[in-house]
Amino acid sequence: MEKLTVIIPTYNERDNLIPLVERIDRALSSRDYEILFIDDNSDDGTAQLASSLSAKYPIRVIVRQNERGLASAVVHGFRHASGDILAVMDADLQHPPELLEGMLKAAQA
13, 66, 68, 90: least surrounded by Cβ within 10 Å? Predict the structure, then answer.
């Protein structure tokens, strides 16, 4: 089974992390996956909370100190992903994690 990396750029998204991670985990419970947070040095504890969630979920966190921006965060995620298939999601819950399974099946067809 191919591994999926879900790349999530973040900046001050602490309040969204727990529901986002829980929904991704439910959606991908039968899959080999990782969540890769690319954080632009948030000052609200986003990276710290994401790191603490790695005790329960397959999460990695990369904090960028001197770089900012969505597009470069996505590219950074591509470089550091361990999955065979890559997905990008916003951290603000605008992209429903429940659609990941269907998109993954379509990509593998």
Answer: 66
